[in-house]
Design brief:
It is a single chain. The protein contains ten helices and two strands; from the N terminus they run ααααββαααααα. With 272 residues, it is mainly alpha-helical. It starts with a helix and ends in a 9-residue tail after the last helix.
C-alpha cells in the first residue's frame, strides 16, 4: 500500500499552520537522528553523512504524517524532557542490534588474540579504534546477515512509532528498559564466549600437544612451529564453524524485534 503523494506533498504546508505538527516533526527528527548514530550497517559509518542526513529528514517527515501529534511543551523543562525522551528512545532502538553484533566482534577478538593475530591490527572504520582483522570481517558479515534478514526494517518501523501508535515525547526510562538493556549488554560476553569457544578449545589442545613435543624432542624449536600452526588451526576451525555461527546469529537477530517492542512499551500509545 503506497503513500498518497498529494497528501505527502501538502503536509509541509499543513505543518506551518500547526505548531503541534512542527514539534512532532522535531521530536521524530531527534529520535531518528540518534538512532542512526548507533544503528549497525546503516548509521555507524561516519563518511555516510551525505546519505544519512536526508534519510533522517525524510523518515521523520514521513513518520510525522501518520504519528499522533505530540503535546506542546508548556515550559522549557518539559521541552527539554521531551527532547531527551526521544533521544533516549532512538539510542535504545539502535543500541539493541548493535549489542548483538558487538558480542560477535568480542568473540572474534578473543579468538584472534589467542591465535596470535592480535599483533596485526586494523583500524575499525565504525569506531576509529584498533581491532583485529578477524573481528572486523566477522562483524561486517553479521551486519550483512542482519540487513538481509530485514532487521533494519524492524528498527525503523519501531522508530516510526509502530505506524503512528506512539505519541512522541512520552517515552520514560523505567525498570523495564533498564533491565532489557542490562541483559543485552551482559549477553555480549555470552555470545562472545560461544563464538570463540571452538577456537579456544582447539588451540588449547594444540598448545598441549606442542608442550608434549617440546618435552619429547627438546631440539625442536617449538616457538617457530607453534606460531603458524596455531594461526592455521584457528582459521580452519573458524571457517568450519562459520555456518553454525551464521545460524546462531540468525536466531539472535530473530529476537531483536521482540526486544524492540519491549523497549517501546515504556512510551504512551495512541488511544484507538
Amino acid at each position: 500500500m503506497g503513500l498518497d503523494s498529494s497528501a505527502v506533498l501538502g503536509f509541509p504546508v499543513e505543518m506551518l499552520q500547526r505548531l503541534d505538527l512542527i514539534w512532532t516533526f522535531i521530536l521524530l527528527l531527534i529520535r531518528f537522528g540518534v538512532m542512526f548514530l548507533v544503528l549497525p550497517g546503516i548509521g555507524s559509518v561516519s563518511k555516510m553523512g551525505t546519505i544519512k542526513t536526508p534519510a533522517v529528514f525524510i523518515m521523520a517527515l514521513t513518520a510525522t504524517t501518520s504519528s499522533a501529534p505530540a503535546v506542546l511543551p508548556a515550559d522549557w523543562s518539559l521541552l527539554i524532557a521531551q527532547a531527551s525522551s526521544e533521544a533516549l528512545l532512538g539510542f535504545g532502538l539502535g543500541l539493541i542490534p548493535y549489542l548483538v553484533i558487538s558480542g560477535v566482534q568480542t568473540g572474534a577478538q578473543v579468538a584472534s588474540t589467542t591465535m596470535g593475530l592480535g599483533m596485526s591490527t586494523l583500524i575499525d572504520p565504525t569506531t576509529g579504534q584498533q581491532t583485529s582483522d578477524m573481528s572486523i570481517i566477522l562483524g561486517d558479515l553479521m551486519i550483512i546477515i542482519f540487513l538481509f534478514l530485514g532487521g533494519h526494517h524492524a528498527v525503523i518501523y519501531a522508530a516510526a512509532g509502530l505506524g503512528g501508535q506512539i505519541i512522541p515525547g512520552t517515552y520514560l526510562v523505567t525498570a523495564n528498559s533498564i533491565d532489557l538493556l542490562a541483559r543485552e549488554t551482559g549477553a555480549i560476553f555470552k555470545v562472545g564466549l560461544l563464538i570463540s569457544a571452538p577456537v579456544l578449545v582447539a588451540l588449547l589442545l594444540t598448545n598441549f600437544v606442542m608442550g608434549l613435543i617440546s618435552k619429547a624432542v627438546p631440539t625442536v624449536n617449538i616457538f617457530i612451529i607453534s606460531f603458524p600452526l596455531t594461526i592455521g588451526i584457528g582459521l580452519i576451525i573458524f571457517l568450519l564453524a562459520l555456518p553454525d555461527i551464521a545460524i546462531f546469529m540468525e536466531r539472535q537477530f530473530a529476537g531483536v524485534e521482540e526486544h524492540l517492542l519491549m523497549l517501546i512499551r515504556d512510551a504512551t500509545l495512541k488511544s484507538s
